[in-house]
Design a protein that fits this description.
Blueprint (H helix, E strand, L loop, with lengths): L1 H15 L5 H4 L6 E6 L2 E6 L4 E5 L10 H13 L1
Length: 78
Amino acid sequence: MMFICLWCIFIIHVFFAKSFTEEDCDNPFKKIRWCNLGNRTYYWYSVTNECKLQLWWGCGQFKTLEECRTVAIPICTE
C-alpha cells in the first residue's frame, strides 16, 4: 500500500511539476552561460545577475551568495 502511495506521489510530481530542459536553461535569449565544476553544473543568468545550480531534473535552485561569488561567477563570466 505504501509503495502505491509513493508511486502516485511520484506520478503527480512528474506530470504537474513545471519541467525544464537544458534547452530551456540554455536559451540564448535568456543570456545564460554554462560552466561545469566537478560534478556540478552551474549557470549564470546574466539578465538578473543570478547564479544557479543545474540539478538533475532541470534548471536548478539558487546557490548561496558566497558559493556563487567565489566559485561559479568567476568561471561562468570569464
